[in-house]
Design a protein that fits this description.
Number of helices: 26
CATH topology of the domain at 2-195: Rossmann fold
CATH class of the domain at 2-195: Alpha Beta
Shape: globular
Distance between the termini: 31 Å
Radius of gyration: 25 Å
Length: about 575
C-alpha cells in the first residue's frame, strides 16, 4: 500500500460519521486521514475544516490537555453540526508525512500548506489561558482560498462552563466563515451531544497518555461517566486491538452505533479479530456487511481492497476458493502497487495445485515490492515445484544481489497442510479509506464551500470529489471526465492536474502523467507532487531529473520522509544512462 499512498490524497480517516464522508487528502496521506460528518442533517456545509491544537498561553502546564481537547471537541461539534472536518488522526498523519512532530508549534504558513495538501477550505487554530479559575479561549480561522485570516472570536468564563463556552465559540466561528449560516445558537446546541466536563477530560487525558495502563484507566473512567458516548468505547476497542487482545476489544467495538464516525473502522477491526480468533464465518459476516453498507449508503460499485482481501481470506478459510480468488483479483486491480494481494492470490493458486498460476502471482508480487524476501522465496518455491529450475536459480541469484547471501527466509511450508496456507496469508490490519470519496448527502450537497470562494471554484470542488469517487471505484474514464470538468470550472486547479496524473500513470502513460504533474506544480508548489514527479522520472530512467525534483521537495519540506528516502535510494542505485 506504500506506493498507492504516495499517489492518492485523502486521508483518512478513517471513516466519517455515519458511514463517513471521505475526502482524500492529496497524495501521500495515510490510513486514517479522515473526514467526519453528521449523519443526515440538512445544514448547509461551509467547506472542509482542518483543526489544529490550541496553544496554552497561560502558566498552568496541568491544563495542557485542554489544547488537544479543544481540537477534539471542535472536530466533534463541527461534525455534529453537519460540517465536514478532518479527524485528529488525519492531521497527525499528514504532519508525520512531512516529518513534523505531533507537538510541533506550527506557523500559519505551515498550517496553510498542510491544509492545501489536504484540500481543506478552512484552518481552525487558537489559544487559551486560565487565571483565577476563569478560562479564556481565542479561536481563529484561516481561509485557504482566497487566502484570508478571518476575525478572531473569543469567549471567557469559569472552567466549569468549558463545554457551553466552547459550543458558543464554535457557533460564532461558523458565522465568521459564512455570514449566512442559518442556525441560531440554541438550534446549534441542540445538535450537540451533552457531555460532562469530567468525562471529556478523562477521555482526552486517556488519548494523550503514554502508558497503555494509564490510557486504559482514563478511557474506562470516561466510559463509566458517559456510558452512551461512543468515543471512549472506540478508543478502548482500538487500544486492545493494537495489543492483539481481541477478546477484550470486541465488547467495546460492539458499543459503536451505526451512525458513528468510527463505525466502519470498528466493523473492519471486528472482522480482523474474527480471523485472528479462527472464526472465518463471523469474519465473512463482518466484511460482507461492511461491503454492503458502502455500496448501499455511499458509493454504488465502489470497493476497498483491504475489505476485499480480508473477505477473500474468510472465504478461503472456509474452502470457498473460487469466491476468494474473485475478491482478491478485484483487490489487486484496485491497488496496482500493493504486493499483498497478488501474494495471497499465489497462495490460493498453490492451494489449488495451480503451480504456473501461483508463480505468475508471486512474480507480480515481486515486481510490486522487489525488496520483500518472502515474495521472492515463494516465487522460487513455485518455480521449483513447477519444474522451472533455471528460472528459480535466476531468482535466487537476483535475491542474493538484492538482499544478500542470507536475505531469503527459509520456508517451512507444507503444501499438504491446510494450516500452512493460513499461516502465510496476509490479513490487512488497517483500513485505508483514502482512495474513496464517500458522500452521505450526495455530490449536490457539497458545492457550497463558502460565499467568498466563488461559484466556479465550488463547481470544481464538486467535480474533484466526484472524480475521486470514480477513481476509487476503478472507473478511470468517468474519473477523468470529472477532473477535466473541474479544470473547465477552475483552470488553475492544481488538484485536478494531480489526479489526472494518477489516471495517466495507471494507464502507463508516463509522459502525460509527468506533464500533468508539471501543470499542477505551476499552479501550486508541493513537496509531495514533486516526489510523485520524481517517481515518474525514475520509471522513465531519468535519474537526474528525479534527483532535481527530490532536492526541490526537500527544500520545501526538509523533514519530508518519502522524498528523503527516495533520494537516498536514488543515490544507491546504479546509473542507468538515462536523464536529460
Amino acid at each position: 500500500m506504500k506506493q498507492r499512498r504516495q499517489w492518492l490524497r485523502k486521508k483518512s480517516p478513517v471513516v466519517l460519521a455515519g458511514l463517513f464522508f471521505f475526502c482524500m487528502p492529496p497524495a501521500g496521506a495515510r490510513a486514517h486521514a479522515t473526514l467526519s460528518q453528521a449523519s443526515s442533517r440538512p445544514v448547509p456545509q461551509e467547506g472542509i475544516f482542518l483543526v489544529f491544537p490550541f496553544e496554552n498561553t497561560g502558566a498552568k502546564p496541568s491544563l495542557d490537555w485542554i489544547g488537544e481537547g479543544l481540537e477534539e471537541l471542535t472536530i466533534e461539534r463541527l461534525s455534529a453540526a453537519g460540517q465536514q472536518v478532518f479527524s485528529h488522526a488525519g492531521r497527525l498523519i499528514e504532519m508525520d508525512h512531512y516529518g513534523l512532530p505531533s507537538s510541533a508549534k506550527l506557523s500559519r504558513a505551515t498550517m496553510l500548506r498542510i491544509a492545501q495538501e489536504m484540500d481543506a477550505d478552512f484552518v481552525v487554530f487558537g489559544s487559551f489561558a486560565s487565571d483565577d479559575g476563569d478560562l479564556t479561549v481565542n479561536m481563529r480561522v484561516l481561509r485557504v482560498s482566497p487566502i484570508a485570516l478571518l476575525p478572531e472570536v473569543s469567549e471567557r468564563g469559569p472552567l466549569s462552563s468549558f463545554m457551553d463556552l466552547h459550543a458558543k465559540l464554535v457557533w460564532r466561528m461558523l458565522r465568521t466563515c459564512g455570514p449566512s449560516y442559518p442556525l441560531n445558537l440554541a438550534d446549534f446546541q441542540k445538535l450537540q451531544r451533552p457531555l460532562s466536563l469530567g468525562a471529556f477530560e478523562q477521555y482526552i487525558r486517556g488519548l494523550l497518555a503514554n502508558e497503555d495502563e494509564t490510557r486504559l484507566r482514563d478511557l474506562k473512567e470516561a466510559a463509566r461517566l458517559e456510558p452512551e458516548w461512543p468515543d471512549p468505547a472506540f478508543a478502548l476497542g482500538d487500544l486492545y486491538f493494537q495489543r492483539n487482545d481481541c477478546a477484550s476489544a470486541l465488547p467495546w467495538f460492539a458499543k459503536i452505533p451505526p451512525t458513528h464516525a468510527r463505525r466502519v473502522e470498528a466493523v473492519f477491526s471486528v472482522g480482523v479479530c474474527r480471523l485472528r480468533l479462527g472464526q472465518p464465518d463471523k469474519a465473512e459476516e463482518a466484511f460482507t456487511s461492511l461491503q454492503e453498507d458502502i455500496h448501499r449508503n455511499l458509493v454504488s460499485g465502489a470497493d476497498l481492497p483491504e475489505i476485499l482481501n480480508n473477505l477473500a481470506l474468510a472465504h478461503a478459510r472456509q474452502n470457498n476458493l473460487e469466491t476468494a480468488m474473485t475478491a482478491l483479483g478485484r483487490a489487486r486491480d484496485l491497488d496496482p502497487d500493493e504486493d499483498d494481494y497478488p501474494f495471497n492470490l499465489g497462495l490460493l493458486a498453490l492451494q489449488q495445485k495451480s503451480l504456473a498460476i501461483a508463480a505468475t502471482h508471486f512474480g507480480e508480487a515481486v515486481e510490486r515490492e522487489p525488496d520483500n524476501p518472502e515474495d521472492r522465496a515463494f516465487l522460487i518455491y513455485a518455480l521449483d515445484k513447477f519444474g522451472k529450475k533455471k528460472e528459480a536459480a535466476a531468482q535466487r541469484e537476483a535475491a542474493v544481489d538484492l538482499l544478500g547471501e542470507k536475505g531469503l527466509p527459509l520456508l517451512k511450508f507444507d503444501s499438504k497442510n491446510a494450516e500452512a496456507y493460513t499461516k502465510y496469508q496476509r490479513v490487512k490490519r488497517e483500513l485505508d479509506i483514502t482512495s474513496l470519496l464517500l458522500e452521505l448527502e450526495g455530490p449536490q450537497a457539497l458545492g457550497n464551500t463558502g460565499a467568498d470562494s466563488g461559484t466556479l471554484r465550488d463547481g470544481a470542488v464538486t467535480h474533484i470529489r466526484r472524480g475521486r469517487q470514480e477513481l476509487g471505484a476503478g472507473r478511470l474514464d468517468l474519473a477523468e471526465g470529472e477532473f477535466r470538468a473541474a479544470l473547465a470550472a477552475d483552470p488553475h486547479n492544481a488538484t485536478a492536474h494531480r489526479e489526472l496524473a494518477e489516471i495517466d500513470r495507471r494507464r502507463g502513460k508516463l509522459e502525460e502523467a509527468a506533464r500533468e504533474l508539471q501543470l499542477s506544480l505551476a499552479e501550486r508548489d508541493s513537496a509531495s507532487v514533486r516526489t510523485m514527479l520524481a517517481r515518474i522520472y525514475i520509471d522513465q530512467k531519468k535519474p537526474e531529473l528525479a534527483r532535481a525534483e527530490l532536492e526541490k521537495a526537500i527544500k520545501l519540506a526538509p523533514n519530508y520522509p518519502e522524498a528523503k528516502e527516495l533520494l537516498e535510494h536514488l543515490g544507491k542505485s546504479k546509473p542507468t544512462g538515462g536523464g536529460q
